[in-house]
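Need Biotin/lipoyl-binding protein's 3D structure for a figure. Predict it.
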Amino acid sequence: MPGEGRLTHAAVDRILALLDGTAGHDIDLAVDGLSLRAEGRAAAPSRSVAAVEPVAAFPAPLPSGPQAVLAPRAGGITLPAGLVPGRAVSADTDIATIGPEGAGELVRAGVAGTVTDLFVADGDLVEYGQPLVRLTPAA
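Structure prediction for Biotin/lipoyl-binding protein:
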């Protein structure tokens, strides 16, 4: 049978939809011969990218010292090639993508500066709020 043994886009969508509805519960899934066990934890609050206020809307200025960029959600992380300590970034530089390929959420630096530390590696699974990189803001 064509596609047998291959994980299809529809199967991944079905698995993700089932996982989204299981916060705090353990589940066992079997889809097209693939078995998956997920141990539930309370999910991080989901938020729409459009709902995030721009930095300029914050009442207090951002601190001038090193700042950690945090994961806006849990998931697998993809880092761009060349993201290494010492690299200069602008506020809108993409420093990571979290989530499935083609549907992941871009994580931007948020401040111009220099990458000081990397706390994750390409392909790692990260948790909501986990530090990804540390940036030293430009003077």
